[in-house]
Design brief:
Blueprint lengths: L9 H25 L4 H10 L17 H12 L3 H17 L4 H9 L7 E4 L8 E6 L2 E8 L10 E7 L8 E7 L4 E2 L16 E2 L4 E4 L3 E2 L1 H13 L8 H27 L17 H34 L5 H27 L11 H14 L5 H13 L16
Parallel strand pairs: 1-4, 2-4
Antiparallel strand pairs: 2-3, 3-7, 3-8, 4-5, 5-9, 6-7
Length: 405
């Protein structure tokens, strides 16, 4: 089933994205206004090959290292943070939906399609999931799945469902063609508005056959078997996805610093002796501090992806301690990038609040990404501190995408 077509290398994809960055930057405001990535941008990205990042290898997908994934996301983030977020999130959808039987997965990835194939919502609670009741030959599924990033352009949804009214451990995943769902078009956020992360819902009861329903333990076992045979995704699952996502934050920080430096020679500092902000020592400190925050965050990301790829090369799974540290690293990087961008935004004066100015949008997008539950620095530093102090706590809530049983 493996395709013989030569795929572009990660370096080639990065080079093509860099060529596309002016377009992505020009489209940022329009994308936010439309609350979705424009179709022409999707088509251009598809032609570059970014939607093959985590398509199953047996269906012609790429097999990039964590380092290569981060570099791709960083180059995208330097063009448009919301676009980079969509590409990263939908790559995750591909990672997990691959575990269904080949006769189910093959039509998803072999059919002609422009854009991402799947979007995934593996909610940490019933508020972000559907319900399923067993019937002959399948399941009756009902529900709504918010924050469905990538649902605008996907062909299928990979969605969490609870199948017991009282036991929250009884949860599964269903693979549903998008045309069987309703898009509520309710995504209207102050940050990452262009991601189109709308709620997807059933229209009443929906029958899902058994072959499109999977239990986490079974899906995890199937994924491990495919990986061992060289046909599945690389090891690491959600932690690997989270670590590589820091490229999105770093890319936005790169763009913000470039935007600030491009205008500093034209901007004055009212109520000060400086006709040019370029001559202000305070501005020099601000630039230096923000640049060092971005550099330090980048170095932490470099160390994390190097460690991750070394573990992958060893062919072993992550320990609980390693997973905790990787999550905390990623959250710290996101927060540092968002803070650096906000420092530059604050130093840009009142004119920067105009929506025609890109820095305000970059700041809102990066902070929104840092507030995602998987990136919340307060949650993860607390978790790390508790672990280092040896304090026991109750079980943590987690996404279905992380559950093994």
């Amino acid at each position: 089933m493996t395709a013989d077509v030569a795929l572009p290398t990660a370096e080639e994809i990065v080079a093509r994205i860099i060529e596309l960055q002016p377009w992505l930057r020009d489209q940022q405001a329009l994308a936010e206004q439309e609350r979705r990535i424009p179709q022409e941008t999707i088509e251009r990205l598809d032609a570059i090959g970014v939607f093959n990042l985590s398509k199953p290898k047996r269906y012609g997908g790429a097999d990039f290292t964590t380092r290569e994934m981060l570099d791709i996301y960083r180059s995208l983030g330097a063009g448009c943070g919301a676009t980079a977020w969509v590409v990263w999130a939908t790559a995750g959808g591909n990672l997990w939906s691959n575990a269904f039987a080949d006769e189910i997965v093959a039509p998803v990835y072999k059919s002609p399609w422009v854009g991402n194939r799947t979007f995934a919502v593996g909610g940490t609670s019933r508020h972000m999931s559907g319900t399923a009741n067993k019937v002959d030959g399948g399941w009756i599924v009902t529900g709504a799945w918010p924050f469905a990033t990538g649902s605008v352009h996907a062909s299928h949804g990979y969605l969490a469902v609870f199948y017991d009214d009282k036991d929250d451990s009884k949860v599964g995943m269903v693979l549903i063609p998008k045309h069987q769902l309703i898009a509520r078009n309710d995504w209207d956020a102050s940050g990452l508005a262009a991601t189109g992360s709308q709620t997807m819902a059933t229209d009443g009861e929906l029958f899902v056959p058994d072959e499109r329903f999977g239990f986490p333990a079974e899906l995890a076992k199937r994924t491990a078997e495919l990986t061992a045979r060289g046909l599945g995704p690389r090891r690491g699952g959600l932690p690997r996805s989270i670590v590589s996502s820091t490229g999105v934050a770093l890319g936005m920080a790169d763009q913000a610093l470039e935007v600030f430096l491009a205008s500093i020679g034209r901007r004055s500092v009212p109520y000060s002796p400086y006709a040019r902000q370029l001559d202000s020592p305070v501005a020099h400190h601000i630039i230096g501090r923000a640049a060092m925050q971005i550099r330090a965050a980048g170095r932490m990301a470099d160390a994390a992806v190097a460690e991750f790829d070394a573990i992958d090369a060893e062919g072993r799974d992550l320990s609980e301690g390693e997973i905790l540290q990787f999550h905390t690293d990623a959250a710290y990087i996101w927060n540092e990038c968002a803070t650096a961008i906000e420092t530059l935004f604050r130093a840009s004066g009142a004119s920067a609040i105009s929506k025609r100015m890109p820095l305000q949008l970059i700041a809102r997008n990066c902070r929104a990404g840092s507030l995602h539950a998987a990136n919340n620095v307060d949650t993860w530093t607390e978790n790390l501190g508790r672990s280092l102090a040896g304090v026991e706590a109750g079980a943590s809530s987690m996404s279905v995408l992380e559950r093994k049983s």
